Amino acid sequence: MTDELDRAYAGLDALAQLTDALTDLRPAHADERPLYVGWGMLATVHRQAAAVVLLHRHGFGHETAPNRRSMLEHAAQIWWLAEDGTDAVESMNHALKHKQQKLREAADDSGISYDATIADAVQAAVLPPTSAQTYNHIGHLLKRIGPPLHMIYMSESMLTHASLTSAERFFSGPGTDTVELLTTPRYPSDAPGPDTRAPYIALVLTWFAMTAFNRLLSGQPWTDALQHIAQEAGIEDTAT
């Protein structure tokens, strides 16, 4: 496990250096929006990875499930931008309009006052439908990328949200004479949890996000470096 953690730290550092060195964002296509939206999502992935490492080093690997889930969501969206470009951006605009409307309804229901300028502008926007809108649903998108990613997402969601799965990490022994209540999480000994591997999971997801984002850049300048990092970390066959 120590070797895996060392490779995770080294890989994440190498990926961060690539990002820091990118000073000229030149889009691969005429529509620049996928690149800039992708950059915002990639920056989020990197910050979530840093949070995972920080929490793990302080003994809170279990608590990084929400971070890992967020990383997977953002990495998948970058992949979508690289695949569908303009259609992906327009689909995200549809999702934004829907969510803004739901937010407005919730604020109105609770009697909260707010400046309606942005909400009015979003609601008034006329957006042409796109065939890619179905991929605003994260489950549909992950299945398109690869069914195993959807399974991983579902697993992380069960640890992230209040559920029997998240609760049972903190007690043991149901059905026996002794039930032990725990203050730190415990995973079955025959099925090690993702808490101990959190930094490596973060590395794989960051690498996947950067591989997708590289396709949005003119000339795909990170290709060789990403391949080298994957080989060093042993993840070259991880992402699709």
TrEMBL record:
The organism's place on the tree of life at top rank: Bacteria
Pfam family, one: DUF5677
Record InterPro entries: DUF5677 (IPR043733)
Protein name listed in UniProt: DUF5677 domain-containing protein
Species the sequence originates in: Streptomyces tendae
